[in-house]
């Protein structure tokens, strides 16, 4: 998403589309496409240029537990919200929102999804 | 890519970094890492472990130990800087396993500490034992009384009155070790003289030879019949002879015996009335003179010589004397 400087209206509309992220234990999370694009892996999965099925259906089945998907989505939203912030602005720290109990598992997932 | 570089945006740490930070901060709570960790991912977590934690991880998942040599070396250096310095200066060869080296050195240090502490404990216990020996213990038994001075010696210096009284009682009782020894002819003789038998305290009986040491020792003395004692007068004091003759003639009756001691001797130097007669009696002892015919007079005279008796009294010992130092006492 960061590389798309000349944003067409269609593109923008498309970016506002909802994308569904599914987990292994039945939880689904809806995020905007532009949010999902913060994740390198998801971006590839959803890229319109690819021929993955996800690109057509806007559904990304993630092989993670619900909690992990949720935390990942949370981070993606945080990232998409503040990556354009100016230097003077105060950004809330995300570290507090990472529970130690899931930190290792989230680490693995974060690495996989390149978040 | 660690950071997202935007045209005007901020660098936000990646989720990977956040997770690494959180995991490192709570590494003590991690039981084990599990399998399949990529080294670069788990590295920050391992680096923030203590030796115990790292050992736990390596024991649970041995593959982790593959890349932890430098971590162990760093831990060893932190714990034993002096020993590590030896290795750095190539005095010793670097051990194959820093981890083994660390734990071995730790055990040695602990052993040394234990030995020292045991030694300290033992010496402290010994000292406590010694203290306990000499400490004050509670008991219901009375410890044997210590006699710092010879038996019978007074615990406090006696007053003059006490001294004279004790001397008199000692004399009459014939206490062992008494300095006053009577010659044979001075043994007690009971004279059938009721007057003498009646000492100032009327309650006393004539037969009582020994009177309990009391405030009226004169009674016993009188009974004991220090005959010669009566004749003392002349040598003791200057006034002795004239007064003696006077008293001899006086021969007060039994009743007078009581009264006479009571009357305070006018010229008495110091001894109290009751004790003056007795003093008169025993003070002249050293120069005994037996006179049976005077058996009666002595006791009678003793009381009669109240006044002269008082003046006659000369302390045996210089210490008792209240005369000025220069005057020689009779004794």
From TrEMBL, chain A:
Species this protein is from: Dichomitus squalens
The keyword Nucleus is annotated on this UniProt entry: yes
Entry similarity comment: Belongs to the SKP1 family.
Name of the protein in question: Elongin-C
Domain SKP1 component POZ residue range list: 19-50
InterPro entries reported for this sequence: ELC1 (IPR039948), SKP1-like (IPR001232), SKP1/BTB/POZ_sf (IPR011333), Skp1_comp_POZ (IPR016073)
Top-rank taxon: Eukaryota
Signal peptide segment: none
Keyword Nucleus: yes
UniProtKB keywords: Nucleus
Gene Ontology, cellular component aspect: nucleus
Membrane spanning stretches: none
Organism phylogeny: Eukaryota, Fungi, Dikarya, Basidiomycota, Agaricomycotina
Compartments where located: Nucleus
One record GO biological process: ubiquitin-dependent protein catabolic process
TrEMBL record, chain B:
Residue ranges with Basic and acidic residues bias: 123-140
GO biological process, one term: transcription elongation by RNA polymerase II
Gene Ontology terms: cellular component: elongin complex
Region (Disordered): 120-331
Record's compositionally biased regions (Low complexity): 217-230
Polar residues composition bias: residue spans: 204-216, 238-257
Ranges of biased composition (kind: Pro residues): 262-277
Annotated Pfam families: Elongin_A
Name of the protein this chain belongs to: RNA polymerase II transcription factor SIII subunit A-domain-containing protein
């Amino acid at each position: 998403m960061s590389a798309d400087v000349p944003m067409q209206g269609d593109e923008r509309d498309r970016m506002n589309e909802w994308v569904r992220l599914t987990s292994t234990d039945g939880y689904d999370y809806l995020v905007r496409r532009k949010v999902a694009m913060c994740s390198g892996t998801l971006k590839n999965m959803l890229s319109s240029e690819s021929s993955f099925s996800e690109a057509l259906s806007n559904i990304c089945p993630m092989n993670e537990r619900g909690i992990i998907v949720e935390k990942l989505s949370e981070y993606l939203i945080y990232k998409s919200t503040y990556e354009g912030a100016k230097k003077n602005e105060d950004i809330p720290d995300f570290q507090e929102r990472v529970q130690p109990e899931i930190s290792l598992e989230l680490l693995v997932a974060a690495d996989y999804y390149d978040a | 890519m660690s950071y997202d570089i935007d045209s005007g945006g901020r660098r936000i740490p990646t989720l990977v970094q956040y997770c690494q930070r959180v995991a490192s901060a709570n590494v003590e709570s991690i039981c084990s890492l599990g399998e399949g960790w990529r080294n670069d991912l788990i590295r920050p977590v391992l680096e923030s472990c203590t030796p115990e934690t790292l050992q736990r991880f390596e024991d649970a998942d041995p593959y982790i130990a593959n890349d932890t040599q430098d971590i162990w070396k760093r831990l060893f250096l932190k714990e034993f800087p002096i020993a590590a310095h030896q290795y750095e200066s190539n005095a010793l060869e670097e051990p194959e396993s820093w981890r083994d080296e660390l734990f071995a050195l730790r055990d040695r240090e602990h052993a040394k500490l234990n030995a020292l502490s045991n030694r300290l404990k033992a010496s402290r216990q010994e000292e406590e034992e010694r203290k306990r020996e000499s400490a004050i213990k509670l008991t219901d038994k009375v410890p044997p009384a210590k006699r710092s001075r010879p038996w019978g010696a007074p615990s406090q210096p006696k007053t003059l009155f006490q001294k004279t009284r004790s001397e008199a009682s000692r004399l009459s009782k014939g206490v062992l070790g008494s300095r006053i020894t009577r010659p044979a002819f001075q043994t007690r003789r009971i004279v059938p003289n009721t007057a003498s038998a009646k000492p100032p305290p009327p309650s006393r009986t004539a037969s009582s030879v020994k009177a309990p040491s009391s405030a009226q020792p004169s009674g016993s003395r009188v009974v004991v019949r220090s005959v010669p004692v009566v004749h003392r007068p002349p040598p003791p004091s200057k006034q002795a002879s004239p007064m003696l003759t006077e008293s001899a003639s006086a021969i007060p009756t039994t009743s007078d015996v009581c009264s006479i001691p009571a009357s305070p001797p006018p010229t008495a130097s110091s001894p109290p009335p009751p004790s003056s007669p007795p003093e008169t009696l025993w003070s002249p002892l050293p120069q005994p003179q037996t006179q049976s015919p005077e058996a009666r007079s002595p006791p009678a005279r003793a009381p009669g010589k109240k006044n002269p008796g008082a003046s006659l009294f000369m302390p045996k010992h210089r210490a008792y004397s209240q005369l000025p130092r220069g005057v020689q006492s009779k004794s």
